[in-house]
Design brief:
This protein has helices spanning 23-27, 78-92, 114-130, 136-150, 158-165, 188-197, 209-221, 225-247, 253-264, 274-286, 310-319, and strands spanning 3-14, 29-46, 51-56, 61-66, 98-104, 168-173, 179-183, 198-202, 290-293, 301-305, 324-326, 336-339. It has 340 residues and is an alpha+beta fold. The chain has two domains: 3-185, Ribosomal Protein S5, domain 2 (2-Layer Sandwich); 188-326, Alpha-Beta Plaits (2-Layer Sandwich), CATH 3.30.70.890. It is globular and about 60 Å long.
């Protein structure tokens, strides 16, 4: 038998960064995101014997290990090993022998939540294989614990929940790891219009999001008023975005994105840079009404809202800047697992 899973990547439309501790613990965070048809995939093939083989196909990495209850965390495919270690510790209680293959449609550091989505996909494949009694909230929380606690990787909470639940979600984050996922019933025509007018642009750069997120967390700990006020404004932006989508004010989304982008840059150093500013200004000049960097900032993907026919002028302008405009579609479902 072969056990497979896939989990969608996401676009954060509003509130990005307010899901990060300690801000979410102290003030409560809120984010609006939507999943897209780009995925992290995981396949598990059980093996006889005592070997574990882990292959990251997109990264051309492979390791073979002797099966143990706990695998070494040493910089080699640690996300996969972290999932295995936690599941053996909490559920299986014995070593397993298997081959795990993974693939992600976007590179690490892209700003689409690729690392967390991969963890969700791997957890999903193990849940399918081992028939673990875990629901959506359980899987998302477990993925968060593996990445943030077990592997000590800085970051927020939205990516794990977006990948697990899928669709358009308004998420709330509170102290003690309390998360509430509110699926939004947005009319199809507004979703189609947003998909038609929202441009996804890959800057052909990546960045280590954990470094930016650590600066952001430190700013809250140090009671940096400028940074905290910026996060308050981004939380407000998530409510503005929710109302715009539910009421069909789609062409107002560009201005809401721009409002958020201006405040996001005040959260921490490194979120923007001259290259990003040049791209952003070129898009606005060509007819976009707003945009943002996807994820923590510093590189990766950017999104722009360009109403009516301005979309094609914006695409033409972006194509001259060395990156790539990417085709995508929104998805209404999250983590999916199956057995062959």
């Amino acid at each position: 038998m072969i056990y497979r899973s896939k989990a969608p990547l996401r676009l954060g439309l509003a509130g990005g960064g307010t899901d990060v501790s300690p801000y979410s613990d102290l003030y409560g965070g809120a984010i609006l995101n939507i999943t897209i048809g780009m995925y992290a995939y995981a396949t598990i093939k059980p093996l006889s014997g005592t070997k574990i083989r882990i292959k990251a196909i997109d990264r051309n990495e492979e390791i073979v290990l002797e099966s143990k209850k706990q695998l070494p965390i040493n910089g080699q495919l640690d996300l996969a090993k972290g999932v295995y270690n936690r599941l053996v510790k909490d559920f299986v209680k014995k070593p397993l022998a298997f081959e795990l293959s993974t693939y992600v449609d976007a590179p690490p550091g892209s700003g689409l939540g690729s690392s967390s989505t991969l963890v969700v996909a791997i957890v999903g494949a193990f849940v399918e294989w081992l028939k673990l009694p875990l629901g959506e909230y359980d899987i998302a929380h477990l993925a968060y614990q593996i990445e943030r606690e077990d592997l000590s990787m800085h970051g927020g909470k939205q990516d794990q929940y977006a990948a697990t639940f899928g669709g358009v979600n308004y998420m709330e984050f509170y102290a003690n790891d309390k998360v509430i996922v509110n699926p939004l019933r947005v009319k199809d025509k507004w979703i189609h219009e947003l998909e038609n007018n929202l441009i996804l642009f890959f800057t052909e750069t990546s960045r280590l999001s954990s470094e930016i997120i650590k600066k952001q967390s430190d700013n809250v700990k140090k009671k940096n008023v400028k940074s905290i006020d910026a996060m308050h404004s981004l939380k407000e932006q998530s409510v503005m975005m929710k109302e715009a989508l539910l009421k069909g004010n789609v062409d107002g989304i560009g201005k809401i994105l721009h409002y958020g982008w201006e405040h996001k840059k005040a959260m921490a150093e490194g979120i923007s840079n001259p290259q990003i500013e040049s791209i952003y200004n070129a898009a606005l000049k060509a007819g976009a009404t707003g945009g943002k960097i996807s994820g923590a900032g510093g590189g990766g993907f950017m999104i722009f809202y360009a109403p009516y026919i301005h979309k094609f002028k914006v695409i033409e302008a972006l194509n001259k800047l060395g990156g790539r405009v990417m085709r995508y579609n929104f998805t209404s479902y999250g983590l999916t697992t199956w057995t062959i």
